[in-house]
């Protein structure tokens, strides 16, 4: 694969990482210092060479950071975490380099600025903004404090994620009596039996990984087991539950919040939520609060009705009157089956991995004219990983991606896309092609059967692939705004949520599904039931997401030294939630999105971008879901532009107007 600059995962040696990283950082610093000796600054003599050095650093660090998330080991984690202060120190040195800041200002004020491309101008403007947000104008003492805070936050964030992973791995349930598993689907039992065999155990082994946890909560008749697993899952990394105090993240949360508040104050912001919005599409904290509140007001009455339906059903059909939170998924599934005669397990045989992956490729082929092919003999981090290349209908190579679909020990939970390589023109004039990592945590093949996905998992895969396409299909050749770079956090979910819509289309399902034994597509009667059940409990799902979003934003907007995190969450739940969990629930202690990832004071982005994605999709509903002209318009105005222009301008160029919230409510079945 000579066109790609692929990492060598097999060459990563934990004991050499820190020494090598220091060399890359030293080279970056030297490049900056050398280029600042010039008397006149231009894009070509300053920004391009500094970018090139930064890219070498990024290409070195990317596989290390990625492997720490997907095939972690004690040695790798230790080496990775030892490097975080070095990276943080370098980031602060760069962001607070006054001479570099002034050089960017000089480029902007020079007459030649008008000759730069739109993307290049955006890079210069964004950089000037980011220098200010890095404390370039602070007095020396405050600059130093800024650096200390950034370094400590990086360390705490990594420790938070590590402790969630350790707590998830630190609990399992071994069962030898099959009668305790009544109601559990064969697929879940087979996976649990396989997990037990891998540990040289008889019977069945359950873990807190989602493919193991969810089927128990949804289908298992054994209420005590559901309660036990719910308690273990919702008390991970906390002061309560089966591993109480062992990996408690509560002190880290308090420290992270205090440091974020101090950082905001240093930079002249009223709170961390306001600082977060300085680089986002939303214009003010009032706008975000109003947006979330409006959605909550419109969704909660329906969510309360949906919850009452489950309570009434459990009482009428099963004589159960006192529903705990670990009963809700179980009786909800029974109600869904009673109303629609459908379940995820009935659909699973129709979504074998190969059919789904090829079907997803067919969707983007019809929309954008893309061809996706697996590339053999590529160095990967695990035997289950594959690499693919993308070409367009002009036979032009556009990018590549690694696909890592299955859950396994020492792999971070959830699903995510990350960048491996960024598209840009290198100093020698050649083009570096973009490469993405696409990661999920699905059940792998069991007992000789292929991996079989639930429809929810199919949607998750499409979501991550949507992110990947945003990164790989960019036509922007400037690193800082190429692909997902430079895209405001509250707009970055647009392409991912947008692609999910095709998972519900009859035309798509005809080639996206096929029974793993017979190849027969999803039968019409099952399809109709699935479509009718699409918005089952959608308002309950909506208020759950709003609970997380409002909690995150309120916590960061109103934090002070007296803030009790649990009390804030309890207060938010009283306002918007319909299922109030027990006092032992420590959801926040495993909320890696905001304490271990990039969503702090930004979790609202999912709902914000869903307004954009629903409205963008409504154009396809109007003009044809595989209308190539509309597909090309989305490709050109959204996917190819990366972060080179403001997202609202790009959206309006595609849709012809500002976004409307109505398609989101309609798609969610909320009146």
**Going across the major beta sheet, what is the strand order?**
3-4-5-9-6
Total count of domains? 4
Task: Report the major sheet.
Answer: 5 strands, mixed
Helicity range of the residues?
55-70%
Q: Name the average pLDDT.
A: 97
Structural class: alpha+beta
Low-confidence stretches: none
CATH class of the largest domain reads Mainly Alpha
Strand content: 5-15%
CATH architecture of the largest domain, by name, is: Orthogonal Bundle
Rg estimate, integer Å: 25 Å
Count of helical segments? 26
Structure commentary:
- This protein has 671 residues and is of the alpha+beta class.
- The strands form three sheets. A five-stranded mixed beta sheet has the order 3-4-5-9-6, sandwiched between helices. It has a two-stranded antiparallel ribbon with strand order 1-2.
- The chain is built from 26 helices and nine strands.
- Strand 4 and strand 5 form a beta hairpin.
- The relative contact order is 0.11.
- The radius of gyration is 25 Å and the shape is globular.
- Helix content is 56%, strand content 7%.
């Amino acid at each position: 694969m000579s066109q790609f600059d692929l990492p060598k995962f097999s060459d990563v040696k934990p004991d050499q990482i820190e020494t090598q990283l220091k060399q890359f950082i030293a080279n970056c610093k030297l490049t900056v210092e050398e280029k600042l000796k010039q008397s006149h600054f231009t894009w070509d003599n300053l920004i391009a060479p500094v970018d090139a050095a930064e890219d070498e650093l990024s290409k070195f660090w990317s596989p290390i950071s990625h492997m720490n998330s997907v095939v972690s080991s004690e040695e790798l984690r230790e080496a990775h975490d030892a490097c975080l202060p070095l990276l943080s120190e370098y980031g602060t040195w760069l962001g607070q380099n006054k001479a570099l800041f002034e050089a960017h200002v000089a480029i902007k004020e020079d007459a030649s600025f008008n000759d730069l491309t739109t993307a290049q101008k955006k890079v210069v403007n964004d950089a000037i903004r980011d220098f200010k947000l890095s404390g370039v104008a602070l007095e020396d003492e405050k600059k130093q404090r800024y650096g200390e805070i950034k370094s400590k936050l990086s360390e705490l964030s990594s420790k938070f994620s590590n402790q969630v992973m350790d707590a998830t791995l630190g609990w399992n349930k071994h069962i030898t009596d099959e009668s305790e598993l009544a109601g559990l689907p064969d697929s879940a039992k087979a996976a649990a039996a396989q997990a037990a065999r891998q540990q040289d155990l008889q019977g069945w082994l359950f873990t807190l990984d989602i493919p193991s946890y969810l089927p128990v909560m949804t289908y298992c008749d054994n209420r005590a087991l559901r309660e036990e697993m719910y308690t273990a899952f919702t008390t991970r990394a906390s002061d309560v539950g089966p591993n109480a105090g062992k990996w408690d993240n509560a002190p880290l949360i308090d420290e992270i919040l205090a440091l974020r508040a101090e950082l905001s104050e240093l930079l002249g912001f009223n709170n961390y939520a306001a600082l977060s919005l300085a680089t986002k599409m939303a214009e003010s904290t009032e706008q975000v609060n109003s947006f979330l509140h409006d959605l909550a007001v419109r969704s909660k009455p329906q969510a309360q009705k949906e919850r009452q339906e489950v309570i009434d059903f459990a009482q009428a059909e099963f004589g159960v009157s006192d529903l705990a939170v670990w009963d809700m998924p179980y009786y909800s599934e029974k109600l869904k089956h009673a109303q629609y005669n459908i379940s995820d397990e009935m659909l699973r045989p129709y979504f074998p991995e190969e059919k789904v992956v090829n079907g997803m490729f067919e969707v983007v082929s019809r929309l954008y004219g893309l061809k996706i092919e697996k590339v053999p003999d590529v160095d990967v981090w695990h035997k289950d990983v594959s690499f693919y290349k993308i070409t367009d209908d002009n036979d032009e190579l556009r990018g590549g991606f690694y696909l890592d679909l299955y859950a396994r020990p020492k792999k971070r939970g959830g699903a995510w896309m990350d960048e491996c390589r960024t598209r840009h023109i290198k100093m020698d004039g050649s083009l570096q092609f973009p490469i993405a990592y696409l990661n999920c945590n699905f059940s792998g093949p069991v007992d000789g059967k292929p991996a079989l996905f639930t429809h929810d998992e199919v949607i998750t895969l499409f979501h991550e692939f949507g992110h990947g396409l945003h990164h790989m299909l960019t036509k922007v050749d400037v690193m800082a705004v190429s692909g997902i770079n430079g895209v405001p956090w509250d707009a970055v979910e647009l392409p991912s949520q947008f692609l999910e819509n095709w998972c519900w289309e009859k035309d798509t399902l005809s080639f996206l599904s096929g029974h793993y034994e017979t190849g027969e597509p999803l039968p019409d009667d099952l399809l109709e039931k699935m479509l009718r059940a699409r918005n089952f409990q959608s308002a309950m799902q909506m208020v759950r997401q709003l609970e997380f979003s409002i909690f995150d934003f309120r916590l960061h907007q109103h934090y002070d030294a007296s803030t009790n995190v649990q009390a804030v969450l309890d207060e938010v739940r009283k306002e918007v939630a319909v299922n109030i969990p027990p006092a032992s629930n420590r959801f926040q202690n495993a909320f890696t999105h905001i304490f271990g990832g990039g969503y702090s004071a930004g979790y609202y982005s999912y709902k914000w971008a869903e307004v954009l994605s629903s409205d963008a999709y409504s154009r396809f509903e109007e003009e044809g879901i595989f209308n190539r002209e509309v597909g090309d318009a989305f490709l050109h105005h959204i996917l190819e532009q990366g972060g080179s222009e403001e997202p609202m301008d790009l959206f309006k160029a595609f849709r012809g107007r500002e976004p409307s919230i109505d398609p989101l409510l309609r798609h969610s079945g909320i009146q």
